[in-house]
Structures are given as C-alpha cells and as structure tokens.
Write a structure and sequence with these properties.
Elements lengths: L1 E2 L5 E2 L4 E6 L7 H5 L3 E7 L7 H9 L10 E6 L5 H20 L12 H19 L7
Antiparallel strand pairs: 1-2, 3-4, 4-5
Length: about 140
C-alpha cells in the first residue's frame, strides 16, 4: 500500500516494478546484477480519484506517455531495494506535484504617482542629454 495523501492510497498491484541492469560505468557489478528498477504505472487503469487522473494526464511531462502510463527508471543506488524505494518516492512526488493548484495571478496596475515619477525622470534625463549636443555658433 502506497500512501499519496491521508485519503488517497495506491494498491501495490497497480504498480509494475521490473528489475533491469543499470546503464553506465560501474565495472563487473553493473554487468551481472539487475539492480536498476523500471516502474510503470497506468494512470487510467488506477484507483486514483478522477481529479488526480485528470491533473496527471494534463501534465506536460516526458515521463508520462501518450497512453497515460508513467514510466520511471531508478538506477542511482547500488542495491535493488534502494532503487525500488527511490522509484516509489519519485512516483508519489510526481502524483503530489500534479495536485498542487497554482495561485491565480491578478494583473496589477502602476499607480498614478509612480507613472508621474517615471515620466518626470525620463523628461529630466532627456533634458540632460539634450545639453550634450553641439553648441550652435
């Protein structure tokens, strides 16, 4: 059982974990031991509430396929157990990040006083620059 929030839980059978060999350098160990974890989670077939599913599918994330499957690969640790925990933590973080509602931006307007100060400073600057020209003879 994977806990997303107080009221939302995922069953272990909804998450597909596969052990694979890790990529990259690492010597003999990397060639022999399947320590990396490949995690697959089907959003549409899951028991997540509709709100979570809609928000996840709307994310522009390369880890989510067009079919609505989250694919994560964890290979930063040497042991399979730590990589499994890492993959599950990353899945929970991704699901939680989809539920965060951004605060709506209210456009602001410059005050009349600030506009006047800006225009006065521009006028003053223009007068200073105008004095730099050639002196008429």
């Amino acid at each position: 059982m994977l806990e997303i929030s107080n009221s939302v839980h995922l069953a272990a059978d909804e998450i597909e974990l596969t052990a694979i060999r890790a990529q990259g350098s690492g010597g003999q160990n990397v060639n022999k031991v399947s320590s990396a974890i490949h995690l697959r989670f089907d959003i549409k077939a899951s028991s997540l509430p509709a709100f979570y599913q809609e928000r996840l599918l709307a994310l522009a994330d390369q880890r989510i396929s067009k079919d609505g499957v989250i694919v994560l690969k964890a290979q930063s640790h040497r042991t399979q157990e730590l990589n499994r925990l890492d993959a599950l933590e990353r899945l929970v973080a991704l699901i939680r990040s989809a539920t965060v509602v951004e605060k709506k931006r209210r456009p602001t307007k410059a005050t009349r006083g600030s506009q006047k100060r800006r225009m006065d400073s521009k006028t003053l600057r223009g007068k200073t620059k105008a004095l730099r020209g050639r002196v008429p003879v």
